[in-house]
Amino acid sequence: MLTLKCAPSSGKPNLSDVVLVNLAYVSDVDVISDRAETPPPLASLNFNKLVNRARAEKDDKLSQAYAISAGVSVEGQQLFQTIHKTIKDCKWQEKNIIVMDDVVISPPYQVDNCKGKEGSALSHVRKIVEKHFRDLESQKPVQHSQQAQQTQKDSALSS
């Protein structure tokens, strides 16, 4: 195992990125420069935290794969991801999004499709759905102008 301590991708000066490389999959290593002093010992890794993070990532990917295989629309998948960023307790049940076991969002995944017992959970989910679609609408003019600029560039290049 090769351990590389790298500059932080987060930009925070007091942190480092640690990359572990399985040397069984490496065919050749070139040493560009060698350090004269012994590097400080690596901080211990919280193995349980890493396992939990890997499990959560795997569950997220399985959830995405399930949505695709169930024929969920792209809009539904995007809404699920938006909700999941705020509320981790959400899952798919066929084509419905279930949030905190209290709120069900059915296709076509609009605010009116949020059903559940009236209360703070339903209200909170509706606000997330409203904001999601507001954000999508605000991005559309930018996308259209970028497409128009690309079309102008393409036509200028072809003439």
From TrEMBL:
SMART domains: AD (SM00995). Residues 140-159 have a biased composition (Polar residues). InterPro entries: AD, Lsm12-like, LSM12_ABD, LSM12_LSM. Residues 136-159 are annotated as: Disordered. Pfam families: AD, LSM12_LSM. This is AD domain-containing protein. Residues 43-137 form the AD domain.
